[in-house]
Write a structure and sequence with these properties.
The complex is a heterodimer of chains A (about 400) and B (about 100). Chain A is α/β, with parallel strands linked by helices and about 400 residues long. Chain A has two domains: about 240 residues, Rossmann fold (3-Layer(aba) Sandwich); about 140 residues, Rossmann fold, CATH 3.40.50.920. In chain A, β6, α6 and β7 form a beta-alpha-beta unit. The longest helix of chain A has 17 residues. Chain B is of the alpha+beta class and about 100 residues long. Chain B has a domain of about 70 residues: Alpha-Beta Plaits, CATH 3.30.70.20. Chain B is about 10% helix and about 20% strand. Chain B has two helices and four strands. In chain B, a hairpin with a 4-residue loop joins β2 and β3. The chains are: A alpha/beta (about 400), B alpha+beta (about 100). Bound molecules: iron/sulfur cluster (SF4) (2 copies). The site of one iron/sulfur cluster (SF4) has 13 residues of chain B, from α1.
Amino acid sequence: MAKVIGLNGNAAVANAMRQINPHVVAAYPITPQTDCVERFAEFVADGRVDTEFVTVESEHSAMSACVGAAAAGGRVMTATSANGLALMWEIVYIAASMRLPIVMMVANRALSGNINIHCDHSDTMGARDAGWLQLFSENAQEAYDNTIMAIKIAEDMSVRLPVMVTQDGFIISHALECVELLEDEEVQKFIGPYKERYPMLDLKNPVTYGPLDLFDYYFEHKWSQIDAIDHCLPVIEKVSAEYGKLSGRNYELLESYKLDDAEVGIVALGSTCGTAKEAVDRMREAGKKVGLLKVRCFRPFPTEQVIKTLSPLKGVAVLDRSATFGGFGGPVFTEIRSALYDAPERPLVIDFLYGLGGRDIFMEDIEMAHSRIEGVVKKGRIDTHVDFLGLRE
Amino acid sequence: MSKQKRAKELVAGGMIVEAGNARDYETGDWRTEKPEVDFDKCIHCFFCWAYCPDSSVNVDPEAGKMKGFDLKHCKGCGICASICPKNAITMVSER
Ligand code: SF4
Ligand code: SF4
């Protein structure tokens, strides 16, 4: 029997980690993630997991220890935020290059400066090209569910890539919610025993990880990494469907909310989707034909599914919680707009940067985005491609 | 250079999954000069064998004889020539 208890996002993920019982966790504290690993450390100290818990002197070392442990043949997890993720940077790429199925929770936080500890997506969006899968969560329940699914996705023999599970810092990580936990045995049964692939501790079959790889083979190895992540979507769908059967909570790559008969759509990631659903309901009551597309899986980007869902619309307003300085709109906007380029019928697409450094987003902001895209559709022309919500300009 | 594999034939992750295959990676074509030994001068002291950073000096340990060079892997660094106490090794241009 599943039980519902009050947990914040960090505690929900810490409990998922307890139920997963990984061989190794190596982590370094950073706000707002600290609370997650702190709780997991308690599980270690209380003997509720068998995990080898490695306390390190920096995130660079945390990810390095994770890479070593995963290459040795263990199930490995960690967690970080913002500047911590930035300090891991080179090893984050190496984990993906070596095809190590590490699962990392990232409590999204603004990546300086100035110093700010609150939510935006600049940390994980900066890491979007590192070769990791990225699953965004709308609330603590989803952070918990995504963490368990991430293990099974990462360890699938055709995937063998690391996965980042994100939750919005403070907004989800520190907010108490009702979270339904599976039974410990159900989680163990779902993820199954860890399957090794070329473990370094298999002394009878010695292997070399990360050798020098120059102009004669590096390109081929990168291609095989591109090919691998490009083929992950069916595995994510399969694992999500299995998880749906077990938990009763169904997840897809994208969640469509009231889009079926919609004329315009809002696109968002993370906790903003909860606010946006409320805003959509309110606008629907006022007779507006509007819906929401929630992007759960950002890497790999579900291009075909985005085209299928959004191309029938007349207008789309994308909400980006991070900036690409000097780029053409935020990272979600560029993906969405580029995906739609070849669609025979395509909506007009505009972008809104919002919520940087934890700036709140309100239903009124989403209604504002909606009225702007409505205006664009009426006019049939975009005057401003990238605008801001909740900014004092 | 040994025959190059295609991307689909490679082990995912770029790890090397067999032991002792460094010899398959032929580095001899990186060389601009190659060592030549004059056996009239050589006293088979094995200094060149001990100093070669690429394990490219062939020896017969039973007979205690230096036997020349593994030119598939020798990178032509010249350390053997500089270390030889009898100046028995000369570096000659590959051109
Ligand atoms: S030239 Fe350098 S690599 Fe070649 S045999 Fe001499 S020491 Fe070894
Ligand atoms: S160092 Fe010179 S003398 Fe000694 S084994 Fe080599 S070639 Fe012969």
